[in-house]
Specification:
- The chain has 2 domains: about 1-65, no CATH class; about 70-170, no CATH class.
- Helix content is about 75%, strand content about 5%.
- The protein has 7 helices and 2 strands; from the N terminus they run ββααααααα.
- The chain has a two-stranded antiparallel sheet with strand order 1-2.
- A hairpin with a 2-residue loop joins strand 1 and strand 2 (about 10).
- The N and C termini lie far apart (about 70 Å).
Length: about 180
């Protein structure tokens, strides 16, 4: 019910018949859609798993707490590998992204008809392919290990780093560069 204020007093006004019918129709449509979706979900739900989930969550929680510190000695090597993958992969991405960024920036590329679109294609394709896809591809080519993970991280990061760099390069004042 719409309420308006005149001279500090609230005045109730009845909605027009067409607006009221539209509101009721929207509510009815929304409710019907909700019931339809609920029915689809309920038909495909395996309720045994839903009712068993709290017990399983409690079991996982009881095995997590308190932690078993005897595993800590086994975790140092994989932890070091993970840090190396992230750090070296990002550094490799920076090394590869700098030339791509200079080729993608309008004010520094030597050829705006061929090299710039090619650099932008590298940036966009690198950003559009997930790290997991890169790692699956590289594991099948190189084999599992730190090198495959490092290259996957670097191939994924080239697009993000190059985009940040080429946008910053394009914003450089050309007068300062000439000075």
């Amino acid at each position: 019910m719409p309420v308006s204020e005149r001279l500090g007093q609230k005045i109730w006004q009845r909605r027009e018949r067409g607006k009221q019918l539209a509101i009721w129709f929207a509510w009815l449509t929304g409710t019907a859609l909700f019931v339809f979706c609920w029915q689809l979900i309920s038909e495909q739900t395996q309720w045994f798993f839903v009712w068993d989930a709290p017990r399983i969550a409690g079991d996982i929680g009881s095995r997590m707490l308190p932690p078993r510190w005897s595993y800590i000695t086994e975790l140092w090597e994989p932890l070091w590998d993970t840090i190396n993958i992230a750090t070296l992969g990002t550094m490799l991405a920076i090394v590869m992204a700098v030339p791509v960024a200079f080729l993608a920036a309008r004010n520094t590329t030597p050829d705006t008809r061929i090299l710039r679109p090619l650099a932008l294609l590298i940036i966009v394709s690198s950003r559009s392919i997930n790290s997991l896809i890169w790692s699956l591809l590289l594991v099948s080519i190189i084999g599992p290990g730190v090198v495959a993970g490092m290259i996957a991280i670097s191939l994924r990061s080239i697009g993000f780093i190059a985009k940040l760099l080429y946008e910053a390069i394009e914003e450089i004042d050309p007068n300062q560069v000439e000075a």
